[in-house]
Amino acid sequence: MTPVQPDPPDYAPDLGHPRRWLILGVLVLSLIIVVLDNTVLNVALETLADPDAGLGAEQSQLQWMINAYTLVFAGLLFACGVIGDRIGRRKLLLLGLGVFGCSSLLSAYAQSPGQLIGYRALMGAGAALMMPSTLSLLRVVFSEREFPRALGVWTGAVGVGGALGPVVAGSLLERFWWGSIFLINVPIAAFGIVMIRLLAPESRGRQGRPDLVGMALSVVALVLLTYGIIKAGDSGSWTRVEVFGPIIAGLAGLVAFVLWELRTPHPSLDMRLFRNARFASASILIALIFFAMLGLFFFMTFYIQVVRGRTPIQAGLLFLAFGISTMIFAPLSSTMVGRFGSRVVGIAGLTLVTCASLTVSRLEADTPLWLVAVVFAVQAMGMANLMPPAMTTLMSSVPREQAGVASALGNTLRQVGGALGVAVLGTVMAQAYRGRLTEAAPGLHGAARESIVATYAGVADQLSRGRMDPSTAHDLLRAANESFVGAMHVTAYCCAGVGLLGMLLVGRYFPRKTQTGSDSAPESRAEPVSEAVAER
Fold first, then answer.
1. CA atoms within 13 A on the CB side of 52
2. Mean pLDDT computed over 306-328
3. Which residues, in sequence order, are CB contacts of 488 under 8 Å at separation 6+?
4. Coil, strand or helix at 209
């Protein structure tokens, strides 16, 4: 069967769109609010739990205010990338901006925890509509020569958005009510809609019969898998039926998706792409990178706020070192790749990420906090020189008409890998903490041993009831801090191990620098699947 060709662009593809840099600016702004909303709510949880200043939310409701966004976002990402390729990426981005802006407005004026959870889920749907289109539009409006540089800026926006979340939320909460952290998205979304309509061209990919069964299987499988991973992270256990049940069902759904894609004549994701070792290795590497990064951020947040006693906004300012470093170095990564090749740059980036994890394994309860900021900056420097080559390898291994699918796959791997990192490394952290605290404070029982937050809450409760004297409380909290730091060291070693595994992948499968000073074909042009398979 002859494939249906995508709509031709109204400009020379080898030069790029004449307004490509303005389009990049608008896409980056749209991307920042999506990534920012992954972290912005963490700072407001205490306020939302207050029945007077917030909504009086219970602990389980607070968790689902965060998880509803992540769950829907991760579950719909891949399907939205496929839909964007078929109906138009610009159209889907505009729809996503509209949904995101409206749900942000509704979230700001939610009257109950249940309403806010529902609106956050709707925000996740809007984010899933937007995210693949931002990257696939870049692939369309930029030439192959300039695409890696644009991708570096896009990657920098991901880092900036994630780091800005706690800072923006903390600043707004000091001056306004909790709804302001959502209300700020509304004018940005409205501005994005206007500018995208004025600047961005429409582009489509394949126009054949839609693979409705494949898209449905991907949504069900990813939602179940992400739900199970989130529950594992929340409970700290992988043996409960509400954890392993959805995970097993999700994995079974992914197997069904793969089998269906192999037999259908119009697949959402051509599984032959994974015969290309570079495409497959880039996919695995992206998941590994965010597994380690978000897992590291998870326990470092508790280290800064609980062990070191800093406020959420102070913690956000430390994390801002990550965003600033990413913003500086990500746009330079394409130059580094052009000079040294993806393999050398990727290994150098992973070396920095691994060194940052090993440095965390040496932190103590009294280490100067400026060193923590340096660790974040070094980790970001490594990520900034690692993610663009990985995403470029992934995106350039598929034809342009499948850019949305590749973009959605990369972003889905980021979300699932990050959620898995928080769950797995959070479990490692919790088990190591409990073991150390049991030895250091055998008199502490029950839920107070489950986490350092629970320990502090338990000690505070005993003090308020007069059941514990201040000197005993001081000794217990010191034991808790030492136990947490020891557990953090174990978890940091796990992150370093992930970095070493990534080095093996990059060293084996990423392209070397050629004599012309650029990487091999898959990174300099779109490589059709048939050519990729023939190369093997």
1. 0
2. 80
3. 299, 300, 303, 360, 361, 363, 429
4. coil
Spatial CA neighbour of 435 closest among 490, 475, 474: 490
Query: Which tens digits make up the pLDDT trace of 271-297?
Result: 777 777 777 888 888 888 888 887 787
Q: Is 18-209's fold the same as 274-429+492-527's?
A: yes
Whether residue 478 contacts residue 444, with contact meaning beta carbons closer than 8 Å, is answered with no
Name the β-bridge partners of 519. 513
Is the alpha carbon torsion for 410, 411, 412, 413 positive or negative? Answer: positive
Three-class DSSP category at 443: coil
The count of other CB atoms within 10 Å of the CB of residue 427 is 17
398-419: average pLDDT: 72
Mean pLDDT of 448-453: 70
What rounded mean pLDDT belongs to the chain? 78
* DSSP assignment of 23-73: HHHHHHHHHHHHHHTTTGGGGGHHHHH-TTTS----HHHHHHHHHHHHHHH
**pLDDT band at residue 374, thresholds of 50, 70 and 90?**
very high
Domain limits of the chain? 18-209, 211-265, 274-429+492-527, 436-482
Residue 315 has pLDDT above 80, yes or no: no
The superfamily CATH assigns to domain 274-429+492-527 is MFS general substrate transporter like domains (1.20.1250.20)
Question: Once rounded to an integer, what is the mean pLDDT over residues 195-212?
Answer: 74
Q: Give residue 95's pLDDT.
A: 92
Q: Looking at the whole model, is its pTM more than 0.70?
A: yes
3-class DSSP state for residue 459?
helix
Tokens coding 88: 């138009």
Residues 234, 243: Cα–Cα separation, whole Å: 10
Most confident of 115-124, 126-135, 400-409: 115-124
What DSSP element (H or E) covers 215?
A: helix 212-235
How would DSSP label each residue in 252-272? HHHHHHHHHHHH-SS-SS-GG
Domain spanning 18-209: CATH 2.40.37.10: no
Residue 133 C-alpha from the chain's centroid:
16
pLDDT interval class at 354 (50, 70, 90): very high
Instruction: Dig out the tokens for 532 from the structure.
Output: 């990729």
Read off the tokens for 254: 């992914």
